[in-house]
Specification:
about 15% strand, TIM Barrel, 7-stranded parallel sheet, single chain, binds iron/sulfur cluster, 10 helices, about 35% helix
């Protein structure tokens, strides 16, 4: 890995001690994995499940082609819609409990839109996780236009038995970008669905991408301001990966000037600026995404999320940067 050193004058640094960070642990950002260990006393391992759902952006309801970046092909070995939900949970837990004997487990309904089915089907699918003795909670990933009052009522009921976390694909806070990437929903729909999820008492996550075509570094930083206004608990943020066999790959080839071309160091600068604007109570789950090497067209940084996180922490500590440092000075 490259040594990432972005600081010219470390003598200017002002480092907060852990006790002064609102999240009370020794990291300059509200690291999700630490927050989880603090709350639950152990790691919470997500077990990915493909329950055979599709999404309205692929089945023709809104579009046949999907979001322009979408290439939903990578899955853990145990995760397949040919297996029952129970089988996938058993095999996933069997694998991870050898690696992390003290971990708790969350059934992660990850692939496609996991609330996109009639309510009785959802109830049946989720019940396998609810009734599994080793599953501590459910994580349900979906689109903001695939939830209704009935969905939230079901999730609210399940949440009284096992914790339910919902995750919404936001991707961008700009409607012009959402249109360009063929999302077929607006940022307003994101806000409305999150408010309903919040009213239902669910833990809410958001997924955001940096580097979508037509967006600038200023746009990336401004996303933080709009994200701050959402009632979320967690944020997954990562770079756009242009993947083979996607519409985005064609756009990247034909209109390269519409994309930001950045080094890992430049990306880190944006991430640190983003974190400084981000509300301090939002737990941050990741900064980099990893598709299989053979699928990636751009960027080919080859750096893992944990390596990047360590380098970001080092840089933030050196310059006295921390999550929310500029939050109080912003209009909200
Ligand atoms: S990214 Fe999600 S919403 Fe978009 S096409 Fe793929 S599965 Fe559907």
């Amino acid at each position: 890995m490259k040594i990432l050193k972005l600081i010219d004058n470390p003598s200017l640094m002002i480092v907060k001690t852990p006790q002064q960070y609102p999240w009370q642990f020794d990291k300059p950002f509200n690291d999700f994995s630490y927050a989880i260990k603090k709350k639950y006393g152990s790691r919470m391992q997500k077990i990915s499940i493909d329950a055979g759902f599709t999404c309205p952006n692929r089945d023709g309801t809104k579009s046949n082609t999907g979001c322009t970046f979408c290439n939903n092909t990578f899955k853990p070995f145990y995760c397949s819609p040919e297996k029952s939900v129970r089988e996938q949970i058993d095999q996933g837990i069997g694998f991870f409990e050898k690696k992390y004997p003290n971990a708790g487990f969350l059934a992660f309904f990850q692939d496609y839109s996991n609330t996109y089915a009639p309510i009785e089907i959802l109830e049946e699918v989720y019940s396998h996780a609810v009734l599994h003795p080793k599953v501590d909670g459910l994580v349900i990933s979906t689109r903001p236009d695939c939830v209704s009052e009935d969905t939230f009522e079901l999730l609210r009921q399940i949440n009284t038995q096992k914790m339910v976390w919902i995750e919404f694909g936001v991707e961008s806070t700009l409607d012009k970008t959402l249109t360009r990437i063929n999302r077929h929903h607006s940022f307003e729909e994101v806000k409305k669905s999150m408010e309903l999820a919040h009213d239902s008492g669910l833990n809410i996550g958001a997924h955001l991408m940096l580097g979508l075509p037509g967006e600038t570094r200023e746009d990336f930083l401004n996303h933080a301001t709009k994200i701050n206004a959402l009632p979320i608990n967690r944020l997954k943020i990562h770079q756009l990966q242009v993947l083979k066999n996607t519409q985005m790959a064609i756009e990247f080839r034909d209109q390269p000037g519409d994309f930001i071309h950045w080094s890992l160091e430049e990306y880190m600068e944006v991430i640190i600026g983003f974190l400084e604007r981000l509300r301090p109570d939002i737990e941050v789950e990741r900064f980099l995404s990893h598709s299989p090497k053979v699928s990636i067209i751009y960027p080919k940084w080859g750096t893992k999320n944990d390596q990047f996180t360590r380098a970001a922490i080092e840089n933030m500590l050196e310059r006295g940067a921390y999550q929310g440092k500029n939050y109080e000075n912003m209009d909200h």
